[in-house]
Sequence to fold (640 residues):
Amino acid sequence: MKEFSLLELTRRLGQLVVSLFALLVVTFVIGRVLPTDPVGAIVGELADPAAFEAMRQKLGLDLPIYQQFWIYLTSLLQGDLGTAILTGNPVTKDLAQAFPATLELATLAVIISTVIGVPLGMVAAFYRDTWIDQVARVISLVGHSIPVFWFGVVGLVIFYAGLAWVGGPGRVDTYLDGLIEPQTGLLLVDSLLVGDTETFWNAVHHIILPACILAYSAMAYITRMTRSFTLEQLNQDYVTAARAKGASSGRIVVGHLLPNIAVQLVTVLAISYGTLLEGAVVTEIVFSWPGIGQYMTNALMIGDMNAILAGTLIIGAIFMALNFISDLAYLVLDPRTREVTQ
Amino acid sequence: MSAQIPSSEPVTRPRSAILSALAPIWEKLSREPVGLCGFFVLFVLLVLALFAPLIAPYDPAVQNLQAAFLPPSLSHLAGTDEFGRDIFSRLVYGARITISTIMSVTLIVGPIGLIVGVVSGFVGGRTDAILMRFTDIVLSFPSLILALAFAAALGAGLGTAVIAISLTSWPAIARLARAEALIVRNTDYVAAARLYGASPMRLLFLYIAPMCIPSVVVRLTLNMAGIILTAASLGFLGLGAQPPAPEWGAMISSGRKFMLDHWWVAVMPGLAILITSLAFNLVGDTLRDLLDPRHARS
Fold:
């Protein structure tokens, strides 16, 4: 029954399209309907009425709302998100420049949080209700409760200003800035591609602290979920059977447990990744990280709605795409759904 | 209190079900020291917010440039900031902002989520499909980013922040209330009420919705921890309560500049956020363990 899978896939794709459309409507409403005076924000309060009216027509604000939405939609599909006031560039160009920095930060954070969070959650489940479990619980509770931007500030003061273990704000030290021609935009990858180890290590020094701080809040969630997934599995007969035939704990984890919680874990990781992209926005400000978050905040300061909405749209779309991927993971990875299809 | 309501009494109506469920909770709660800690912190926070003018040793807005950047001491428990304002007093007054933000969001989000969820679960069919599809869509929005864009469009301020946070936090409640309603609508007492001729509205609001309230309350409590963090993030970005209002997130934002020489200016408000959020998480966790047997830690 291959059709089942395809049908399911089209259904999910349809949902994704509907969600994306809803996101467009929301950003449209936020950008064009809610602001009381979008024209005044651009031409200034004191502009003469003629200039005001000219800008109003230029922005298409004299048109009926559905026509405005249609124009918004079609220009968006042509890759035109408007011009940023701050840089004077098309917003798409700015975002393309800023996005890799955010991506690099969030990706490293998701790797760190997975590498630490998954084993920690498993250990907590194995040693349930012992001090190890309690420690894991406290770690994850604090991670759930800590304001990430504050943690960033404290981290900078301790590890950069105090101990000088890590690099300060920015992606690299100023004297290395802009030396590497961006290819992927990911500085760690680019510097390795051209074999510039000095820049690479400098970049590592700079990214490690924001990545760890970002990772901590995601790790809290990953640990907690891994623990409960593992607990669910530990009560199953197959684990008892594996124990009875003399399998070691390591073998049970790698051979039996992990495959069974893999699908759920992928879902959790996808969600965490989305949350991390979002968390990166506030973290970037603390670390002067030239990503989307910083770009959006700078735009906020001068009320540049084009830039803010484009950023919202990009992060929202990625967020939804990640949700979609985690849904797909169920279909592709879970053998139980596969059995139905045969 | 527990003596008046014997828990062994057969449950007949939803109202008494809630009451009799509360009795053993007090008993169990006394065996949860960590959870009690959370309750205690929230109680202190509430007292601070209510009696701020009596508790705060200084006026939170009065500047005294001679006393700028004094480190924490007995006369200034949390030190002073760049304008010589007493940080502890500002934190105490800031508790008012925090509490009112949380309460406003909860009062908006709770009823909306409950009604959407209960109607969805009770009515079922196409209504359910449409409502849940809509809920899923809102659930897939990145909340902080959307709140940010929203606050940017409407202008910064506490009210905007509250609306922005509420917009994206009702779906989780709706989902939960729907799941509860699906279970409750098939119970015998609902069937009995139906046989007696109770109208659908009566069933919905008197028989089904009350049974969903305990788990909704738990979820709301856990949400509050997140609300604090989002509100503080918006404040940090300059989109929440405006200066000179002593909003905790905004205090970190302005204290950040002096962090290297005067650590307390930014550290203290952050600690306040951390402790409050932690307390809400603890209370939520404890309530969940106590109210919901499915999540119970043995």
Remarks:
- Chain B has a mean pLDDT of 82.
- The longest helix of chain B spans residues 87-123.
